[in-house]
UniProtKB/TrEMBL annotation:
Taxonomic lineage of the native organism: Bacteria, Pseudomonadati, Pseudomonadota, Alphaproteobacteria, Rhodobacterales
Organism per entry: Salipiger mucosus DSM 16094
InterPro entries: AbiEii (IPR014942)
Protein name: Nucleotidyl transferase AbiEii/AbiGii toxin family protein
């Protein structure tokens, strides 16, 4: 009998070589996608939406573009970490018969653990577990929050997973709910405002760079998203953004270059000063509108 896990692992090695990324990156991406496949096939499919770095393939024709370790999930209804953990336990026990296909990966139920609980703003926390592909262990980390506002509305569609077009054993694309780009930008802005000049999340600058290249945003819609995100987090909209200052850009050029050694930009890394300037320029008008309350939304 053919060992599906071994076959998938060999294919991941080939893709890692072609994409010039590590095997660990490919295996983590694969495990994360297959957990999304289980969520899509479960009774909880309409209760959660994907956010964070795992959204990049949905915006880039299946290309991940940068490494990401976590699955970031937003609960669309009220919930808590204990209930989310119970769902993850159930997903880990799903079999090929439940799914209608065999993806060769096992999620080890006995390893499921909640490792961090977050309270205030959007409650939630982190679940960690181990998966196994053939003989290789893979760490899986899921960060969940509940009740983050989504503007203009939740997207729903096929997630462009690995091996979706494989000639021999194509894997079905999970049909899932996802953050729209406007909410992704809004939460990145919130992170920039929160961490200020001490921000170490270089990936956020990368993601904003990609988002502003890919999408033609409405300033009014972004302003509405900003208002809702900051109201949920009980924070005032910022008057200035040290994380987008000239000084920050100059001080973090080296970190930007290092980060992009493992992204699609590695062969022609844009100057960090130019990236920061573009992000600042693109955020200025919608942020002004949001502060003025002229985006058609006023938080209670």
């Amino acid at each position: 009998m053919k060992n599906i896990g071994a076959s998938i692992k060999d294919k991941l090695k080939q893709q890692a070589r072609q994409q010039r990324v590590t095997m660990d990156f490919m295996m983590i991406r694969y495990a994360n996608e297959r957990l999304l496949g289980r969520l899509a096939a479960s009774r909880w499919a309409d209760d959660y939406c994907l956010k964070g770095g795992m959204l990049l393939p949905a915006w880039n024709d299946g290309d991940m573009f940068r490494p990401t370790a976590d699955i970031d999930i937003n609960g669309l209804n009220d919930g808590d970490l204990a209930g989310f953990k119970e769902m993850v336990l159930a997903l880990s026990q799903m079999t090929p018969d439940d799914l209608g296909y065999d993806d060769g990966i096992d999620f080890l139920t006995e390893t499921v653990a909640d490792t961090y609980q977050r309270e205030g703003g959007a409650d939630g926390g982190k679940i960690e577990m181990k998966a196994k592909l053939h003989t290789s262990p893979i760490p899986v980390r899921i960060d969940v929050s509940f009740g983050n506002p989504v503007t203009p509305s939740v997207d729903h569609g096929d997630y462009p997973c690995l091996f979706r077009a494989d000639k021999k054993t194509p894997l079905p694309m999970p049909k899932i709910h996802m953050y729209p780009p406007e909410t992704a930008v809004s939460e990145k802005l919130h992170a920039l405002a929160s961490f200020g000049s001490f921000n170490t999340r270089i990936r956020d600058y990368y993601d904003l760079h990609i988002l502003f290249e890919k999408f033609d945003f409405s300033d009014d819609m972004l302003a509405e998203a900003f208002q809702k995100t900051f109201a949920k987090q009980e924070r005032d909209l910022p008057d200035d953004l040290p994380a987008l200052s000239e000084e920050y850009a100059e001080e973090n050029r080296g970190k930007w270059a290092k980060f992009n050694e493992s992204t699609n930009l590695r062969d022609a890394v844009p100057d960090f000063h130019d990236v920061v300037t573009t992000i600042r320029d693109r955020l200025t008008t919608p942020l002004d509108l949001a502060r003025e309350g002229s985006a058609g939304y006023s938080p209670a």
